[in-house]
Amino acid sequence: MHVAPTDEDNQPPSRHSALTDATPPDRPPADGAVAPVARMPRWLPRAMVLALALIAAFQLGSWAFHQLTGLLINILIAFFLALAIEPAVSRMAARGMRRGLATFLVFLGLTIAVAGFVTLLGSMLAGQIIKMIEGFPDYLDSLINWTNETFHTELRRVDIQEGLLHSDWLRKYAQNSAAGVLDVSTQVLGGLFQLLTIGLFSFYFAADGPRLRRALCSVLPPARQTEVLRAWEIAVDKTGGYLYSRGLMALISGVAHYILLQALDVPYAPVLGVWVGLVSQFIPTIGTYLAGALPMLIAFTVEPWYAVWVLGFVVVYQQFENYVLQPKLTARTVDIHPAVAFGSVIAGTALLGAVGALIAIPAVATLQAFLGAYVKRYAVTDDPRVHGHRRRSPSGPGVFTRIRRLWAGRPEPEES
Question: What biological-process GO terms show up in the record (predicted)?
Fold first, then answer.
């Protein structure tokens, strides 16, 4: 029998009914039926491979950076050295000389000056060491006599010498010194290779400076090219100003220590003054102590108490230089605040050690001068607090002002 469809059968199935029909009931499968298996999303394997690749790339980059840290520091030193000699090379190149030849002449002059100073200092130091060794028995006799007279002892030089020769300390020291000869030779060769690397990179940076700037600007839009060239020029000016301030402080330090050594009649006073000035200014952190050790040694050969005088003068002058001389000269030549200069040296030392302390001030000065052009400045309001004065209280003058007026015999002003 045929049944006519009703209105409900002609209507489309509702959303609820569709979801009900599409979703299987939440019941265990019948006997012999296979349960549906949940498939892994297609994007998950790709995401896992991408995450593993990123982790591997990060580990590889971190490993490569740690392996190349020494080379990167050498390149950084070479770059600032090239910036320091850039004005001299550019001035010679502007007169028609080839830039490579001008760079070679500048390096040759620096090499001759350093080699001559090291040779003169080495010969002086060798002579003083020989003199000190020859006069060591007399110093030992005077020390033994002073000890016997002061502490009522009966020490003899022969007993002390035999005790030192047969002591375990001397034997172990000789063994360690013999074993450390290879380590010292390795460090010396490594230092020479490092100096050669810095010299080569600085020579290329200075000789091919225009080519390097053109290569850098060729990958930048015109607006960025102007900013890069301006930053380069600022870096040259600030590095030159920093070296000028260091050279001036080296001159002042050398003259001051020369006067002291000459007054004490210490031999080689001019050379020692130059040594103290250069080493204390251009070797950061330990330069002051290394510079003061040699004059103390030479002064000790003349009179042991002279070494104490030299030590005291070095300490006092170092404080004067740190808190008075260096902040003023750095603020004028590099144009940064003394507190900023001091903080930049501390930060540079924490990041890169002695190299960071040496290049921190010119780097911060360059960054400050470059960013100063992009900082918008406004007119400062005319407020007494801007000039360091306190705003006057509405209740009248303060207690100290009233005391000064009473002490001066001036009457209090009448209130209107």
Answer: transmembrane transport
